[in-house]
Amino acid sequence: MLNLLIAIPIVAAIAILLGLCAKKTALFATALNLLLTLALVFQYNQQPGAAQYQFTSSLLLAPSWKLAFALGVDGLSLLMLLLTAIVGFAAVWVAPHPDKLERYPNLFYACLLFIIAGATGAFASLDLFFFYAFHELALIPTFLLIGIWGSGDRITAAWKITIYLALGSFVLLIGLLALYFSIPGADRTLNIPVLQALAMHGGIPQTPWIYLTLLIGFGILISLFPFHTWAPQAYASAPAPAAMLHAGVLKKFGLYGLLRVALPLMPGAAQHWTNLLLFLLAGNILYVGLVTIAQKRLDTMLGYSSVMHMGYIFLGIAAFNPLGLSGASLLMFAHGLSIAALFAITGAVRQRTGSLEFSKLGGLAKPMPFLGFTFGLAAFASIGLPGFANFAAELPIFFGAFSHAGKSLAFSNFQITTIIALWGVVISAVYMLRGYRAAFLGETDKRWNGLADLCACAQPAIILLLAVLLIAGFRPQPFVHLVTPTIKAVLAVPAK
Amino acid sequence: MNFLHPLALDLAVLALGLVLLLLEAFNDKEEKSFLGWIGITGIAVVFVLSFFVGPQQFATGELAQFYKADALALFFKRLALGTTLLVLIMALEFRPILSRYLPAIGKNAGLGEFFALPIFTCLGLMWMASAADFVMIFVSLELVTISFYVLVSYMRRSGASLEAGVKYLILGALSTGFFVYGITWIFGITGQTNLAEVGKALLKLPLSSETPVFFGMTLLFVGLGFKIAAAPFQLWVPDVYQGAPTPITALLSVGSKAAGFIVLIRVLEPFLNAPATADRMLYVLTALAVLSLIYGNLAAMPQLNLKRLLAYSSIAHAGYLLVALASWKTGHAPVTVSFYLAGYFLMTLLAFLVLIVVNKATGGDSIAHFNGLGQRAPFLAFAMLVAMLSLAGVPFTAGFLGKFFVFADAIQTGQWLLVGVGLVTVAAGFYYYLKVVRAMYWNVAKNTDPITISGLTQATIGVLIALIFLLGVWPQPILQMLK
User: Fold this and answer.
1) Strands A60-62 vs A67-68: parallel, antiparallel or unpaired
2) Which of A86, A87, A57 is nearest to A72 (CA)?
3) pLDDT of B297-345, one tens digit each?
4) I want to staple A389 with a disulfide (CB 3.0 to 4.6 A). Which of A334, A394, B2, B323 is the partner?
């Protein structure tokens, strides 16, 4: 089943490259993936006592390394797969029609499908090698998507994201290999469940610098402050579907990696760096937050905002308790959907106005009520308004982080960071509402009077994203239940 | 299944080369491309036959003194045969460009030796793979080098080719001099030319002899560093690669490097296993690796000509291979090197093959000639994309798995300096390999006529692409071969 989930987009991409009708094939493939993922979610056995990893399969490739193409999912991976499938489907849906693309129309859709395949593979892999390899597979389609069909300073943006992420991936690879070789000879394996079982018995040495390497490697991929500079520019220049997939799905790979590999295998080493992580994530929230306010363009503002919101997820991960981790998992899901919706709407606006500078926009909600309305909803979701999944996720993160009380009466570092993070909510409200007002409200410029709203055929994609956000916002329990066993397993590992 | 004697392979190639030379001399036909076809068929047959030869130990006898046929030797023989096969296919494709630079009367005259000489190079490479004695190493090395002297400057009316020939001749002769001088030092101390005997002598080396042996080995490094294109012995590489006929550049870049590494492994083995010399050797290897990595990768970044870019990339890859050798303590450095070379063989030859086809259609080797190739020839562009991604080390390609094994070895033995340098150079690699991708897909072509590809070339490209992906996820066949 999981094999199929990875194979469908790849086969579809190859078929498109060979000349099949691009849009229809891609839509069909992503719709099929969405249905399959839903089937997996409903079939996943959540009974107490059920195996953590289900739908497993394994194909041994190199015995000397115990390297195997091993697939399997638990609640957290399923949530991420669901995110991939929903955002992937929406991204292909809102992608410009092949006839409107000047060059390589088929390659555009093939690149999108390769990114989807890479993300799916990374989330479904239970082998460190393929976990890593699938993610990096998505690097090259991103390079092509930004380089060929990007806007603005696409050339700088494409180089920057590609080289930065290649570097980050390599740091990650060094960390993973160092972790592998720090394990005594006979126990060495690349299989994640086996490694986790090993960690339960204290079989993995807790070397602080190895965890730091992993943290930096994953951190670069997540745009952890101060390794975030690749993100805003790349998202601003990328075509909307690429930005949706990258900011919405691919960036979650690093967070997923922390939760799947770094934390459960090295909880002891992680403790050494808690204060550093708190400091850096405060940088994400406060520094990048203030930078976001200063943006003069809608697309770079969204790019920075997506960097900023990573800070909340890091806070949940740093808290390392049931509340914090479940909030972080849910926020990964919620942020992926909200940022994808925002980029989809912005892409449609850019297509119509040709510019995203606040000084040139204004009053766009009048000619384009649907885009204006949905942007408002997505912006509210992104700020964390109650009713949206983002709120349901951020709240437990704050509670989880604040519960780390210091020994004395003074605030602990956790509590100070949480207070900063709470101010972050205010900061997001400032820039999102300012951006919303500047672009969609106020006087409508004459130039924009004749603009057409998003056509009815593309509207369902955005409605889908927002609907899932609202469902998860009003009823987060099923989502939290889905990830609870994973979080329990992560927290059960003894930190020596 | 092992019904053939290993020597039979070498002898078959020798016979094939001689037959081609005789046919060249005594055949009146002006059109000589049939020689290429005979060569391709012959090498392909020997390549297939090589799988019916098993690794053997010659315990006694004359042969055991100078000839080895272990798994490593057989693997490098296959690599040499495969390289030659592809080079001959390239040579067929390259004919029109070649005849432009020949002072011949007929359109296809003077091409005969171009198909025969690579077969002798192949023979030399195969002997190098089996050499177990300094004399044997030297003789086979010279066979390779001398046939290269001719091949590099084959395009007699091209200034660049002649310049390349002279540079290769002078520096090649110089490096040979160093190599022989090094052998005499080692012979002087140990009294042996057989590598196994040298190894035994090194184990009971008196303290006073350590420095002279180290000096001798350093001289050997000069000679072999030239062969594998490692910095600081890389000066010849860019000009010779650019000037030589492209199929010969490919042969230099893959065949010569592979043979250099098998000899390096054979020669280093006794030195690295003897406690008296091991540490110093590792320092030298580390230094060479750092220099090659930094020089190759950084100098490749500003290149505008693809052949030059591949020349610097060849230096860079020598650096990665040296990283594996510098991690000798893992005990499986030869396997890592061999696997890396297998991947390097596929991706480099694929790049050169596409380069030749594109050169025929656009008339140049610079990266700008690839502008808009994605529109003109989607298949060729895709092939080049795969080659470049594999060279850069993107997962699911043979190149990535090669780098993965190399850095795994380096981390296992705690070579943190090399890992740190690798971090910078891998990122640099992404930049300059993707420059070619940028030209093919981002940029627009002036001329958008489709490019026609011959059936043989198309099939070869297809096979190479498939092998790059296959080896990228399934290393087992190669690892099995090396056991």
Assistant:
1) antiparallel
2) A57
3) 999 999 999 999 999 999 999 999 999 999 998 888 999 999 999 999 9
4) A334
pLDDT in tens, A323-378: 999 999 999 999 999 999 999 999 998 888 888 888 888 888 888 889 999 999 99
Could you give the 3-state DSSP secondary structure of residue B306? helix
CA distances from A188 to A194, A201, A217, B472 (A): 10, 14, 21, 21
DSSP class of residue B53?
A: -
B106 pLDDT above the threshold of 70: no
- Sign of CA pseudo-dihedral B303, B304, B307, B310: positive
- Find how far residue A410's CA is from the centre of its chain: 35
Q: Is the peptide bond before A476 cis (omega within 30 degrees of 0)?
A: no
Residues of chain B with Cβ-Cβ distance to A162 below 8 Å are 430, 434
- Minimum Cα–Cα distance from B429: chain A residue: A163
CB atoms within 10 A of CB A37: 24
DSSP class of residue A447?
Answer: G
Both tokens of A151, joined, read 């806007």
Asked whether the beta carbons of B449 and A185 are under 8 A apart, the reply is: no
Q: Is the pLDDT of residue B1 over 70?
A: no
- The pLDDT tens digits for A246-265 are 999 999 999 999 999 999 99
Q: Which residues of B touch A (CB under 8 A)?
A: 374-375, 378, 382, 389, 392, 394-396, 400, 404, 407-408, 411-412, 419, 422-423, 426-427, 430-431, 434, 437-438, 441-442, 444, 473-476, 479
Shortest distance, CA B137 to any CA of chain A (angstroms): 32
Residues of A with CB under 8 A from a CB of B: 17, 61-64, 67, 69, 103-104, 107, 129, 132-134, 136-137, 139-140, 143-144, 147-148, 155, 159, 162-163, 166-167, 170-171, 173-174, 177-178, 180-181
The arithmetic mean of pLDDT across residues B377-393, rounded, is 93
Task: Tell me the pLDDT band of A311, cut-offs 50, 70 and 90.
Answer: very high
DSSP string covering A84-135: HHHHHHHHHHHSPPGGG-SS-HHHHHHHHHHHHHHHHHHHHB-BHHHHHHHH
- Nearest-Cα distance to chain A for B394, in Å, is 7
* CA distance linking residue A377 with residue B149, whole number of Å: 72
Alpha helices in A240-321 (DSSP H): 240-245, 252-257, 263-265, 267-272, 274-282, 288-293, 298-319
Q: Is the pLDDT of residue A496 over 80?
A: no
